[in-house]
From TrEMBL:
Pfam families: GyrI-like, HTH_18. Residues 8-106 form the HTH araC/xylS-type domain. It comes from the Bacteria. The keyword Transcription regulation applies. GO terms for molecular function: DNA-binding transcription factor activity; sequence-specific DNA binding. Keywords: DNA-binding, Transcription, Transcription regulation. It comes from Candidatus Limivivens merdigallinarum. This is AraC family transcriptional regulator. The keyword Ribonucleoprotein does not apply.
Length: 284
């Protein structure tokens, strides 16, 4: 089974379990990657966050159920996992723009999101530079924060973490302690299944740490490394291209390990950087 078949298999699993609790770890297992990497792939390929897709699919089916004679809002809410009618009403209105009870009115317009099938069309219009490197384990020192299991929330929270680190002097302090490869300010997403997800702002260093910093070991492994330049938005665009253009035809797939961003200049509006993606050779 190839990469695309596994991904669509995970989407079929979503469709078959819309009335049950959908475990992101299970989706990752079907797609042969972590829950973190599955969410990233899904968002970039589908153009919609995974949690939002699931919510819209549930509300699409809920609207159909509510049109049946005798259907009760409270029963339909419970069917799709909403113990609170208020939460169901809020979710329903966010998709359809009307209350659940309004669906029974003849002529009411509702929305339908059909199940996704993902296909890759490789355009090849713009080349991508990368290298594959096997790295030994290295020690980092810095500060870390708990990440949400729904990664779209982190797109808001992580920039705030960086802003605080700049304002409170953490970035300046880390730069003075950096003395090992990779030589740059590191943004590390450590998001293995079965463990707490954490984001590190750190440097590679052999120095001792005081009470304001923490240390951790980044395990050795193989990374696909992509250079880039620009702002935070350019990094997101590079990561989108890695998933949608490079990964499907690269001969590699996601491996267990942290995603790493290496910033060679501290200015977030004009920096050079590298994006490290943990990979392994694709299984035949």
């Amino acid at each position: 089974m190839d990469w695309m078949e596994r991904l669509n298999g995970a989407i079929r699993y979503i469709e078959e379990n819309l009335t049950e609790e959908i475990e992101y770890e299970k989706l990752g297992q079907i797609a042969c990657c972590s829950a973190y990497h599955f969410q990233r792939m899904f968002a970039y390929l589908a153009g919609i966050p995974l949690s939002e897709y699931i919510r819209r699919r549930k509300m699409s089916l809920a609207a159909v159920d509510l049109q049946e004679d005798g259907a009760k809002v409270i029963d339909v809410a419970a069917k799709y996992g909403y113990s609170s009618p208020t939460a169901f009403n809020r979710a329903f209105q966010s998709v359809h723009g009307i209350s659940p009870s309004s669906v029974k009115n003849e002529g009411t317009a509702i929305k339908s999101l059909p199940p996704l099938t993902i296909k890759i069309i490789v355009k090849g219009a713009e080349e991508m530079n990368y290298r594959i490197e096997t790295k030994k384990a290295f020690r980092i020192i810095g500060t870390s924060f708990t990440l949400s299991r729904e990664i779209e929330r982190n797109f808001v929270e992580v920039p705030q973490m960086w802003q605080r680190a700049v304002l409170d002097g953490t970035i300046e302090k880390l730069i003075s302690l950096m003395n090992q490869e990779p030589r740059g300010i590191l943004g590390i997403s450590a998001c293995s299944d079965g463990e707490e997800w954490r984001y590190y702002i750190a440097v590679s260093s052999s120095d001792d740490v005081d009470d304001s910093l923490e240390e951790s070991i980044i395990p050795g492994g193989m990374w696909a490394i992509f250079p880039g330049a620009g702002t935070g938005k350019s990094i997101q665009e590079l990561e989108r291209r890695i998933v949608t253009e490079w990964l499907p035809t690269s001969g590699y797939e996601f491996a267990e390990g942290p995603d790493i961003e290496v910033y060679f200049q501290p200015d977030p509006q004009n920096t050079t950087y590298e994006v490290w993606i943990p990979v392994k050779k694709k299984q035949a």
